[in-house]
Specification:
By secondary structure, this protein is mostly helical. The protein is about 50% helix and about 5% strand. The strands form 2 sheets. A two-stranded antiparallel sheet has the order 1-2. A two-stranded antiparallel ribbon has the order 3-4.
Length: about 180
C-alpha cells in the first residue's frame, strides 16, 4: 500500500486566459491515490466525494458529509487512519472557504487530529504494534504533522468575523502550541 504525500498543495491556481489566477477548491484531489490508501472502512476512495459534499453541499449535506468523513479519518475523535494525513490539507482549504457551512466543525476535526495519540499510547504498552507492516503510529504522526504544516493559516481564521470559527481556531492554536 502506498502512502499519500501530505506536502502537496490542496489547490492550484491555474491561469485564466486573461492571465488572472483563479482559485478552484479541491483541485488537487486527483493527485492523491485514494484507492491505494485506507480509511476506517477500507479503501479511502470515497473521501473525494465527501470532501466535495462539504465544499459544495447545502448545510445538511455538508454536515452529513463531514460526519461520515470524521468516522473515516478520525474515529471517536482520536483514532486516525492512513488516509488522515492526505485529507488534512483539504480540510484546511475547506475551513477557509466562506461558502462552506460547517467551517467551525472542520476546525474542530483538525484539532482532534492534532491531538490524536491513540496509536502512540497503545504502542507504549504494546511495542509489537510498531513491528506491523502497516504502522498506525506512523499514520498518526503524519496526520499531526500535516495539521502543523498549515498552521500559518491560523491567523486568517482567527480574524474571521464568525465567533464560532474564531473560538474553534483559538482552541486549535492552543493544541498546536503544546
Amino acid at each position: 500500500m502506498r502512502s499519500a504525500s501530505t506536502h502537496q498543495p490542496s489547490s492550484e491556481r491555474p491561469e485564466s486566459p486573461q492571465g488572472v489566477a483563479r482559485a478552484t477548491p479541491l483541485m488537487a484531489l486527483d493527485r492523491v491515490p485514494w484507492g491505494d490508501i485506507q480509511d476506517s472502512t477500507g479503501s479511502a476512495a470515497a473521501i473525494p466525494l465527501l470532501l466535495n459534499g462539504i465544499a459544495w453541499g447545502d448545510a445538511d449535506t455538508a454536515r452529513a458529509a463531514l460526519g461520515d468523513l470524521r468516522k473515516r479519518i478520525c474515529q471517536f475523535g482520536f483514532v486516525v487512519e492512513q488516509a488522515t494525513a492526505a485529507t488534512v490539507p483539504f480540510l484546511w482549504e475547506l475551513a477557509q472557504l466562506p461558502q462552506v457551512t460547517c467551517r467551525a466543525q472542520i476546525i474542530q476535526l483538525l484539532k482532534n487530529i492534532a491531538e490524536a495519540r491513540q496509536w502512540e499510547s497503545t504502542a507504549a504498552v504494546y511495542p509489537k504494534l510498531l513491528n506491523h507492516r502497516e504502522n498506525p503510529v506512523v499514520w498518526e504522526r503524519a496526520a499531526r504533522q500535516a495539521v502543523r504544516d498549515r498552521r500559518e493559516d491560523l491567523n486568517r481564521l482567527l480574524a474571521d468575523e464568525d465567533t464560532e470559527i474564531a473560538r474553534a481556531t483559538t482552541e486549535l492554536a492552543r493544541s498546536l502550541a503544546e
